[in-house]
């Protein structure tokens, strides 16, 4: 069992930290909104759990530090500076970042960490809140073989699959591929369901039929019922997908990739944000079509 600091208790980090604590690790948590950390401790109060007032305090003496925050700037804020985790992490510790962020910030922080003997793994996750709660996340990792081998052992309590994709940054680049593919699938599902309704078909019956064949996807199986019901107050928020797709498009500008469809879907999400749907699930692309 290890001493672990977990920084960021959002919809993903909250259950991930709980899985580590349940596995017997000594877990100290930090969250920018302190009441969230207090709620976590109240729910998981035991001899092997605690709350810290700063990221640095949480990381004091930790073998592993996990971060799961919003974006590049949030990540820098909890890692760097006098109150950041690197201010107190010891030589030989491992910093594992679960934030969906840029490959650039991963390389930047890995360089700073290396100067004080701390290993770094960028390890963005896929599987959503449901995957985090069920301990069934897909984790995409970048880092040295040594850092990955150490990180993989401690991430097991909340993972379904853990893959080493290459050097630092490779995890974030792979998560970009994931988001590009997800955006295209959700838009295709929304267009298909909208087409079925306008053609006078029973949409549920159509999904029951085509989900047994090549058209099936995780989004189809897990989101079609809430889409039919027009329920979007759940799941992965459009605000976060917009952030992720902006990262994808910025990286594409650097490597020369053509993301024409991704850019168009990003614009659709922007329209939903502007209409007040920033916290809706990404499957709300159907709502946009229905209201045209």
Gyration radius, to the nearest Å?
A: 20 Å
What number of structural domains do the residues give? 2
Sheet of most strands? 6 strands, parallel
What are the secondary-structure elements, in order, as H or E? EHEHEHEHEHEEHEHEHHHHHH
The counted number of beta strands is 9
Q: What share of the residues lie within helices?
A: 40-55%
Span between termini: 55 Å
Strand order of the largest sheet: 3-2-1-4-5-6
Low-confidence stretches: none
Structural class: alpha/beta
Strand content: 5-15%
Supply the CATH architecture of the largest domain: 3-Layer(aba) Sandwich
Keywords:
alpha/beta; N-(1-d-carboxylethyl)-l-norvaline Dehydrogenase, domain 2; 292 residues; 6-stranded parallel β-sheet; 3-stranded mixed β-sheet; 9 strands
């Amino acid at each position: 069992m290890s001493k672990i600091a977990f920084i960021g208790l959002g919809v993903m980090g909250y259950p991930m930290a709980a899985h580590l604590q349940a596995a017997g690790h000594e877990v100290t948590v930090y969250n920018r909104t302190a009441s969230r950390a207090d709620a976590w401790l109240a729910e998981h109060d035991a001899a092997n759990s605690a709350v810290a007032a700063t990221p640095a305090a949480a990381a004091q003496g930790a073998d592993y530090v996990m971060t799961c925050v919003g974006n590049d700037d949030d990540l820098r804020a909890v890692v760097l500076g006098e109150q950041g985790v690197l201010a107190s992490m010891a030589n030989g510790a491992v910093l594992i970042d679960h934030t969906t962020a840029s490959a650039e910030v991963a390389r930047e922080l890995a360089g700073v960490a290396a100067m004080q003997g701390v290993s770094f793994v960028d390890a963005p996750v896929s599987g959503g809140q449901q995957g985090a709660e069920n301990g069934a996340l897909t984790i995409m990792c970048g880092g040295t073989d040594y850092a990955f081998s150490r990180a993989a052992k401690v991430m097991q309590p909340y993972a379904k699959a853990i893959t080493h994709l290459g050097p630092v940054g490779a995890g974030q680049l792979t998560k970009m591929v994931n988001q590009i593919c997800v955006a295209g699938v959700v838009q295709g599902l929304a267009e298909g369901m909208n087409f079925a309704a306008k053609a006078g078909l029973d949409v549920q019956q159509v999904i029951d039929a085509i989900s047994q064949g090549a058209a099936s996807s995780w989004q189809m199986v897990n989101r079609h019922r809430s889409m039919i019901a027009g329920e979007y107050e759940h799941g992965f928020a459009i605000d976060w997908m917009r952030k992720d797709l902006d990262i994808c498009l910025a990286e594409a500008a650097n490597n020369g990739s053509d993301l024409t469809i991704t850019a168009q879907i990003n614009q659709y999400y922007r329209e939903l944000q502007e209409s007040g749907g920033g916290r809706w699930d990404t499957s709300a692309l159907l709502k946009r079509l229905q209201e045209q």
